[in-house]
Design brief:
single chain; Growth Hormone, Chain: A; 429 residues; mainly alpha; 18 helices
Length: 429
Amino acid sequence: MSLGNTASAAQLSMSTTNIRWSHIAPSLLVVWIVSMFDKSNMAIVMNDPTFLTELGLTGQQAKLGWLSSGLFLAYGLCAPLWGWVVQRYGARITCVMSLAIWALTCFWSGVAHNYDQLLLSRIVLGAGEAALYPLTLALVANWFPLKERGRATSFWWIGTMIGPMLVGLVVTGLIIVVGWRWQFHAMGVLALILPLPMIFFLVKDRPEQHRSVNAAEAELITRGALENNQDAPGRAIKDAPSAWTNYRFWLTTVAIASNAIFFWGWSIWLPTYLRTERHFSFSTAGYLTFVIFGFAVATILLVGYASDKVFRRAPFAGWGWVLAGVLLMGAALAPTPALSVVLMICALCAQQVGISCAEMLMHSVVGAADMGKTQGVRAFVTQLVGALSPAMIGYIVQATGGFTGAFAVLSIAVLISGGCMIKLAREGF
């Protein structure tokens, strides 16, 4: 009987298609890599002496900070609208529209004649990319059983690290070879030729709409949905009939918002810190960015696997964020550039443990039916909070002449994120 059951299970496994992993997950990964190229390239561009001279921005750290803060403000303001679009028209069409908008804004950035035009193009880019969180989490909720969502989330979330990692290498090289304007044009072309066709041809909103999905895979996804899950922490969703009165959703949102202060303030100013505070050259600062973000990719993959095995996210997230805050201050106070870089790597890896587990946690506190609209609101809150960070860091650096005070603010932000996880950890999440 045991052998028969084993053979039957093996036969069922072999007959189950795997479209969620062969089509959906890779498409989301590519979308996020390209989106991070378009958001993070400004960190490299604003260190280019030619760019600073042409637009009269030398020594204007506050203005440079607003080139990213303006993007994130638009991102946050438009996210609830995109959440409604996802709910009404589906994630696939929403993604196609978003990609078209942000590709066009990249071409616009490349022909900007002054600071105001460039700032406006970045604001529109943020408005276009605001669809990403609602559509991504909706697709993951629709396509993956709860016990696979840690790995599924880590699969697309590594795009948020691969993008900045490659920006340090690719964008630095493009600026050196063809200049900062043509670098923006290349970003626009990339969005049109890579993620757009993948979303259009490979992705559907739900498994039952995809002609390559068989009944066994559809049943596996349905049986493993949060609403049908009898294992903790999935059953906790039954305690919150309304998404808007679900304190677990709001605690996770506040934690992610505080994390956004850390990540965007730190990542946008990282190359500048390496060049001006630690005295690396322009090209070396860009290539070090590649190395620092590269370590985070491996961290995210390990966390996704481990959290699915343990089936708990909050303790990982809390301790990761606390450690990130401590390590970042260590990097700011390190006596040598080499030690500072090492501590930077450790701080980013710890921070990614926190945020990747928090993204996974959303799938344990929000049901699939509410995912699009709640993640639109989540993005509204987190991006508006995080949007202020690059400009804030610019003002602090300009006022104090250094990064120590700025890094202290960022460290406090992730400590707040860690604190939000205490109650959820106590509830078994």
